[in-house]
């Protein structure tokens, strides 16, 4: 295994920055580490003595528990830095005396005393300004020699996408000819990032699958993500289509992944200088959401899928809104397999980026 291709790199916009072959290596390494874990083999030599620092600006169950367990299973240490208890890391131009600390200083300090830093930030800590959290994580990367790992920002959730690709590979053996639908689903919460759908459609297209994106009008994803998905579909000989018809996304699908995300007015948009172009509009977002309460996955929609189809969701799911209990607890649901694979995905990312001995 050529692990030196990965050592020291960041995992931030991974669907864009890592090649198809590198994604395949990540999946292979994750499955190798999963086999070792299931066989009870010792893997504590892989990252012996290395430290992962972790910063969550938002809540988390799966990402937090699996990064913490993963680094320790590889022989390293996990140190969680609660941004409320440290000084709040701030980008250049956002300093508040004795409340915040400039990201440059935080990153350079942590660089000296540990081996990687993982960060989650989206939504309120980034004032719902689309792209602000992604830029914040990149500012850490600018001043850090150690790998920076994006544990979900307002644009991408690449550790989730890797776990999802591992799960699909396990269920179907590969991606060629596979019909994967990423669909919007209704939720009573109108404020959610677009990170999961954006990462999943790009990753699935990069792996060569036939990707369908289904959502009501008003829930369009970032045009740059749509352009990249189209480009990958062409390059890797899959296909990509967008529909505003909920049930069309289920017809004949092998994989359905219905989850909610914020509508276009859920976010504030700025130009490159930081000037507001379009302000978040709560009333408009609520109106769009309330018009789409019928986008809940029930058995009726699942009956339209292929007989061997799987239902995916990154969790947490809004039961009774995004999905019925019957579906998420049903025989086609692989949501716990996906969550389990977060552990193995994160171990692969850390082992490869932090210079593990595989
Ligand atoms: N899917 C996911 O990222 O879960 P958590 O928010 O619990 O980390």
**Residue-averaged pLDDT:** 97
- pLDDT < 50 stretches: none
Q: Quote the beta fraction.
A: 5-15%
**Which molecules are bound in this entry?**
phosphoric acid mono(formamide)ester
If helices are DSSP runs of H or I spanning 4 or more residues, what is the number of helices? 12
* CATH C-level of the largest domain: Alpha Beta
> Can you summarize the main beta sheet?
5 strands, parallel
Element string (H = helix, E = strand)? HHEHEEEHEHEHEHEHEEEEHHEHH
Number of strands: 13
Q: Radius of gyration over alpha carbons?
A: 20 Å
Helix content: 25-40%
Q: Which shape, going by the Cα principal axes?
A: globular
| Span between termini | 8 Å
Protein topology:
Layout: H1 14-17, H2 20-38, E1 51-56, H3 62-73, E2 77-80, E3 88-90, E4 100-102, H4 103-113, E5 116-120, H5 132-142, E6 148-150, H6 158-172, E7 179-184, H7 195-206, E8 210-214, H8 223-235, E9 239-243, E10 255-259, E11 269-270, E12 276-278, H9 282-290, H10 299-302, E13 310-311, H11 325-328, H12 335-353
Parallel strand pairs: 1-2, 1-5, 3-4, 5-6, 7-8, 7-10, 8-9, 10-13
Antiparallel strand pairs: 11-12
This protein binds phosphoric acid mono(formamide)ester.
Task: Write a structural description.
The radius of gyration is 20 Å and the shape is globular. The chain has 358 residues and is α/β, with parallel strands linked by helices. Helix 2 crosses helix 6 (158-172) and helix 2 (20-38) packs across helix 12. It starts with 13 loop residues before the first helix and ends in a 5-residue tail after the last helix. The chain has helices at 14-17, 20-38, 62-73, 103-113, 132-142, 158-172, 195-206, 223-235, 282-290, 299-302, 325-328, 335-353, and strands spanning 51-56, 77-80, 88-90, 100-102, 116-120, 148-150, 179-184, 210-214, 239-243, 255-259, 269-270, 276-278, 310-311. The longest helix has 19 residues, at 20-38. Helix 8 (223-235) links the parallel strand 8 and strand 9 (239-243). The protein is built from 12 helices and 13 strands. The protein folds into 2 domains: 14-156 and 340-353, Aspartate/ornithine carbamoyltransferase (Rossmann fold, 3-Layer(aba) Sandwich), CATH 3.40.50; 165-336, Rossmann fold (3-Layer(aba) Sandwich), CATH 3.40.50.1370. The strands form 4 sheets. Strands 9-8-7-10-13 form a 5-stranded parallel β-sheet. The chain has a 4-stranded parallel β-sheet with strand order 2-1-5-6, sandwiched between helices. Residues 60-63, 152, 160, 314-315 line the site of phosphoric acid mono(formamide)ester (CP). The site of phosphoric acid mono(formamide)ester has 8 residues, from helix 3.
């Amino acid at each position: 295994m050529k692990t030196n291709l990965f050592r020291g790199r960041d995992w931030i916009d991974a669907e864009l920055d890592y090649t198809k072959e590198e994604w395949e290596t990540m999946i292979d390494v994750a499955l190798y580490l999963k086999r070792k874990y299931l066989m009870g083999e010792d893997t504590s030599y892989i990252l012996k003595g290395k430290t992962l620092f972790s910063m969550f600006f938002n809540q988390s169950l799966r990402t937090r528990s699996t990064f913490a367990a993963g680094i320790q299973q590889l022989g390293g240490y996990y140190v969680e830095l609660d941004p409320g208890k440290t000084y709040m890391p701030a980008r250049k131009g956002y300093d508040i005396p004795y409340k915040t600390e400039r990201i440059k200083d935080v990153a350079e300090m942590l660089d000296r005393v540990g081996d990687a830093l993982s960060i989650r930030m989206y939504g309120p800590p980034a004032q719902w300004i689309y792209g602000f959290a992604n830029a914040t994580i990149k500012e850490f990367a600018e001043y850090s020699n150690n790998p920076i790992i994006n544990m979900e920002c307002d644009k991408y959730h690449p550790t989730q996408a890797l776990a999802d690709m591992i799960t699909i590979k396990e269920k179907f053996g590969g991606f060629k000819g596979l019909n994967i639908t990423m669909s919007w689903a209704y939720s009573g919460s109108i404020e959610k990032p677009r990170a999961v759908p954006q990462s999943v459609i790009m990753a699935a297209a990069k792996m060569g699958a036939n990707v369908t994106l289904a959502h009501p009008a008003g829930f369009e994803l970032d045009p740059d993500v749509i352009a990249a998905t189209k480009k990958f579909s062409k390059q890797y000989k899959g296909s990509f289509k967008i529909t505003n018809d909920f049930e069309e996304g289920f017809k004949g699908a092998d994989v359905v992944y219905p989850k909610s995300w914020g509508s276009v007015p859920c976010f504030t948009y700025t130009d490159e200088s930081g000037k507001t172009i379009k302000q978040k509009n709560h009333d408009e977002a609520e109106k769009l959401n309330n018009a789409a309460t019928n986008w809940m996955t029930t058995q009726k929609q699942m009956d339209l899928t292929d007989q061997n189809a799987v239902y995916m969701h990154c969790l947490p799911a809004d039961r009774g809104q995004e999905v019925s209990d019957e579906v998420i607890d049903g025989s086609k649901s692989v949501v716990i397999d996906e969550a389990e694979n977060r552990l193995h995905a994160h171990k692969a990312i850390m082992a490869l980026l932090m210079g593990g001995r595989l």
